[in-house]
Write a structure and sequence with these properties.
alpha+beta, 3 helices, 4 strands, disordered N terminus, disordered C terminus, Lcl C-terminal domain-containing protein, Lcl_C
Length: 183
């Protein structure tokens, strides 16, 4: 897989408009709180897919991946289910501590509709939580498995079934407005 293919895979999961991904915050169970990217090979200036390490190209991502993805399926009340369960409502990322909604509708949302939907799932207490929000781009990219080739989806479909290779809303935190002073 080329770097361009990896970027396409990332963008198909982590950017844009249309579908909504929701998460609730819990306490992380892993000290680093960062998932592995799924990248398992290294590259040099002209070739991808090489075994690691590559002389002259140190400190590549594939050399450091160690924690992998560690998910737990949850029912609508937030109770743990076995990995073999096929009817689950949410997924807990045991590395980051985030809870993700699994079910997607066939509908596309505007940003405002996505925000309204977030309020609705908070009211009903989806999976036992009422602090649901849209993820930021870093959180959303944290569940992307970059070892999955384009067109994806770049996610573990055992835990996130029927996830389309599409665009997802995320919340970006914009820097505070700058004040320019005249001279």
């Amino acid at each position: 897989m080329t770097m361009l293919d990896r970027m396409r895979s990332f963008h198909s999961l982590a950017r844009g408009a249309g579908l909504i991904a929701l998460l609730a915050l819990t306490i992380p169970t892993h000290a680093d709180g960062l998932n592995d990217t799924g990248i398992t090979t290294c590259s040099n200036a002209t070739q991808n897919g090489l075994p690691c390490p590559v002389a002259g190209f140190p400190r590549q991502d594939a050399e450091y991946g160690s924690n992998g993805f560690n998910f737990t399926k949850l029912d609508a009340a937030g109770n743990d289910l076995p990995a073999s369960a096929t009817d689950h409502t949410c997924v807990r990322d045991n590395v980051t501590g985030l809870i993700w909604q699994v079910k997607f509708s066939d509908s596309y949302y505007t940003f405002d509709q996505a925000a309204t939907y977030t309020g609705t799932v908070n009211t009903i207490g989806l999976c036992g939580f009422n602090d649901w929000r849209m993820p930021n781009i870093k959180e959303l990219s944290g569940i992307a498995d970059h070892s999955i080739a384009y067109p994806g989806p770049t996610i573990d479909t055992n835990y996130f079934p029927n996830t389309p290779s599409s665009w997802f809303w995320s919340v970006l935190r914009l820097p505070a407005a700058r004040t320019t002073r005249g001279t």
